[in-house]
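In response to reviewer comment 3 from the previous cycle, which asked for concrete evidence that the modeling workflow produces usable outputs, we include below a single protein chain processed end to end. The sequence was submitted unchanged, and the resulting structure tokens are shown without manual editing.
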Amino acid sequence: MHGLVLFWIALGANPLAAHHSFSAEYDFTKPVSLTEVVVKWELINPHGWITLDVKDAQGTVTRWMIETGNPNALIRAGWRKDH
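The workflow returned the following structure tokens.
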């Protein structure tokens, strides 16, 4: 599956701020946009995961794992596992 995955949407930054130190792990002033191949999407508790294979300018592929919000919040926001 090809798709544009925006870092902010995937993480759901506000819900995570309640019990994780987002700013300790990420610089929210530097959002990252990735357009690559989604190889796996896990809608699991307590946080889902989106796994991407990202190719750089030299053609080297790096696997990225992006933590999402909890499945219940994602479903309420319109995310569905069958899309």
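The chain has four helices and four strands. We consider this sufficient to address the reviewer's concern, and the full set will be provided in the supplementary archive.
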